[in-house]
Amino acid sequence: MKTLKIAAIAILVTLGACASKFETLLTSNDVEAKYKAAMDYYQNKKFARAAQLFESMAVLTSGTARDDTVQFYWGMSNYRNKDFYTAEGNFASFIQNFPRSPFTSDAEFYRLDCMYRATYRYELDQMPTRSCLAAINEYEREHPDDAAHLAACAEMKHDLQDRLDRKELEAGKLYYRMEDYLAAQVKLRNVLKTNADNFYREDVLYYTAMASYNYARLSVVARRRERYLVFSDDYLNFVGEYPESHYRKELDGLYRKVQDVLGTEAPDATDQAAE
Question: Comparing C-alpha atoms, which of 240, 189, 192, 244 is closest to residue 212?
Fold first, then answer.
């Protein structure tokens, strides 16, 4: 027990000395010592301390040959420490102040990554998503040969576009669940008018057909026929694009039912779609 107490006291004394040394270094004007220590902390993954030291020497190295290196690693230290909000500010300032630095391309990419990490899931505001997509597109135009980062950019873009597409689908489904079938039809049709390549195109077409069917089913008798014909068109469009869809069985049954209501024989849906 006595040995353990001695060991614990020794550790505390050592930690206190280290902390004291760091605090002294933090307030020092010795650029060489601060720079070496900051790089050591960074290499040893002590990113919070590295960030503090790089920040503390930023004014001291301003206008010198080390200016861009210190500013870049200040941003990278915050980035590695997962302080993405501060890191984005670091990188944005760096890009503005050092457009010709050898670190600029990396700073632009890591700023994008910080923006990406600040976006929200699809249910929430997607303005940050759109801003990030625009920034990624600009980066790709300006760095067409940057193989090191373009693959990551493509993954980010896919994920961001998926959120936007999912949000559009869910907006249409919300009207559908509320049984406002006309509003659901309008919303879902507009989804594909503005973005025909929506990742959820199959689901959009399915819910469009279902909204058409239910809107017709609940219509007054005088309007029912024309609205069932709209459903028939939506059905044929769907099976023409997705003949093997897991929605097919349900829609086939509704289509046959509609043909019975219309007093016509239901033709083969695949043949109709082909026509």
Answer: 189
Region of 83 on the Ramachandran plot (φ > 0 left; ψ -120 to 50 alpha; else beta): beta
Q: Which tokens belong to 51?
A: 């960030």
Give the residue among 273, 244, 241 at the shortest CA–CA distance from 255: 273
As given in the structure block, the two tokens for residue 188 are 């879902």
105-148 tens-digit pLDDT: 999 999 999 999 999 999 999 999 999 999 999 999 999 999 88
Residue at token pair 């057909």: 209
Other Cβ atoms within 10 Å of 113 Cβ, number: 20
Which residues of the chain carry a pLDDT beneath 70? 1-19, 264-275
Count of residues in the chain = 275
Residues sharing a CB contact under 8 Å with residue 94, sequence separation 6 or more, in sequence order: 68, 71, 72, 75, 101, 103, 104, 107
Distance, in Å, from the CA atom of 149 to the CA atom of 269, rounded to the nearest integer, reads 47
In sequence order, which residues have a C-beta less than 8 Å from that of residue 260 and are 6 or more positions away?
266
Sign of CA pseudo-dihedral 56, 89, 146, 155: positive
Tokens of residue 151, six digits: 């693959």
Cα–Cα distance list, 164 to 138, 141, 205, 208 (Å): 19, 22, 17, 18
